[in-house]
Amino acid sequence: MNFRSTAGRMVASIACAVSTLACAQNTLLNVSYDVSREFYKDINSSFVAQYRKTTGADVKVDQSHGGSSSQARAVNDGLDADVVTMNTTTDIDFLASSGIVAKDWPRQFPNHASPTSSTMLFLTRAGNPKGIRDWNDLIRPDVKVVLVNPKTGGNGRMAYLAAWGYVRKKGGTDAQAAEFVGKLYRNVPVLAKGGRDATAIFLQRNVGDVLITFESEVVSVEREFGAGKVDAIHPSISIVAENPVAIVERTVKKKGTAALARAYLNYLYSDEAQEIAARHALRPVNATILKKYASTLKPIDLFRVEDYFGSLAQAQSVHFNDGGEFDKLYTVR
Amino acid sequence: MLVVSAGAIRPARRVLPGFRLTLGYTLFYLGLIVLIPLSALLLKTFTLSWDQFIAAVASPRVVASYRLTFLAALVASLVNALFGLLVAWVLVRYNFPGKKVVDALVDLPFALPTAVAGISLTALLADNGWVGSLLAPHGIALAFNPKGVVIALIFIGLPFVVRTVQPVLEDAERELEEAASCLGATRWQTFRYVIFPSIAPALLTGFAMAFARAVGEYGSVIFIAGNMPMVSEITPLIIIGKLEQYDYAGATAVAVVMLTFSFILLMLINALQAWQRKRSGAR
């Protein structure tokens, strides 16, 4: 998938060399996570049109998609991304730690550099035969839960933290949260590799009574693959999963695209882009637009990772790194 | 590494020119393709202290994954050795309509993207799949547990055994079998004492290749395994998991342990082969 964009840039640079016009570097590469393909396709065509209208210049935005952290590794190892748009802050923190992205990246754009966010919801079989309404239904012995392995997917990490935070927000202690999460994972027959894999296991393989996944995935499953076969369930409490963005300093310095990259990421906060996000079931930061789409993006009592876990990086080291809380669920009985 | 044809000819003076050039090229090529990436792996591992290394490669989850990976690979390649031999036998010794097609089918697991293999096997064996739905009422589940891992590994390993045994069977001298039969050997004795010793080295090679392939397989297994820690996580998944944590050194450490195991096992199989060849008196 990177091939096409590379070819595109090659063509662009050849065109530049031939025409000798001041057309240098008007192409951006947006390296993003797996399921944002359709969202950024819409964003890009709308950004290109808007940019032409305001500046008169033609620009092109190429996309590259894959698992969030493998994309971050590719950028780290030399993929010439101008901007990265990820679904977990740890992926951009990693790039910041190797100096490719500015250290203060969360302060470079509004709302911790996250123009959109998502949250974790449930999908049940049509009619919700097991009567699953909230997190505490998931630890009932008769319920089988499908979710993503937190070791291999950001989706799985968010589901885990959402369950843990549910107990904390209800006034429970960390010990009670650990016990709750332990019971929950005992009801998990399959740990999927990634978000789409989890959807396939739940929907096509017919495993489990409930799937925990991102709101955007829940909505698209409800609309497309599983219309009539599943019900979306909104739990009483869930987590804010930010979709952070950042400029890749290494690339924009080399290509001279800093201004364009900044314009592109700023555009994500415009009303137009926020509407596109809402239509793709991503929660926009713009409260008015969020309210406008309240029928799909229903109001839930949301908490932030920082409320109970310090930061996502801290949550990572306490819960998901080797020997952490998640490993203890399976190795200490 | 594994030489099938026994007894390399060693003349006093080499007849063919270019020994030095070709040897130099061979060493250069192996260095470029095999040794440089492997030494990069080792170098990355050396950034860990000994304690960190042990913590990375010997935690309970990782040890459980070695057990699953090597046991499943062993079972799968044993099954493949047996049934691959059977397939090769049928393809060489009998003529039947559609033989060419069957012969071509053997190579399909080579050509198919492994993820496709994994997804189709899962679709087939899950409780709502064609096969899985027949077995589910009897309480047999083949997908999302270690059995699924073995099945996926059998699938991807089959061609190795068939394709190594087939040419040796084709070259086997029928006269020997006829002679054995004339001397009063039963059909079983002919197979046991005449045919089997001549194909055993090839069978071992095929087994070793299927085994090595199975140990490293990721794409197909990941969809059918269920990936439960301590139960159905394969070692390559542990490596991916560590990469997801940006723990490059930990990931390479596990890879080094895996490579060492595999290398020792392949050496053992090589030695077994040499011993077998000597014992059967083959050249």
H/E element order of chain A? HEHEHEHHEEEHHEHEHEEEEHHHEHEHHH
* CATH class label of the largest domain in chain A: Alpha Beta
Count of structural domains of chain B: 2
What is the fold-level CATH name, i.e. the topology of the largest domain in chain B? MetI-like fold
Per CATH, the architecture of the largest domain in chain A is 3-Layer(aba) Sandwich
Relative helix content of chain B:
over 70%
Number of helices of chain A: 16
Give the overall shape of chain A: globular
CATH-scheme architecture of the largest domain in chain B: Orthogonal Bundle
What is the mean predicted local confidence, pLDDT of chain A? 88
What oligomeric assembly is this protein in? Answer: heterodimer
Largest interface: A-B, 30 and 31 residues
Question: What is the CATH class designation of the largest domain in chain B?
Answer: Mainly Alpha
Order of helices and strands of chain B: HHHHHHHHHHHHH
CATH homologous superfamily identity of the largest domain in chain B: MetI-like
Class by SSE composition of chain B: mainly alpha
Sequence stretches where pLDDT stays below 50 over 5 or more residues of chain B = 1-7
In CATH, the homologous superfamily of the largest domain in chain A goes by the name: Periplasmic binding protein-like II
Q: Could you please say which CATH topology of the largest domain in chain A applies here?
A: D-Maltodextrin-Binding Protein, domain 2
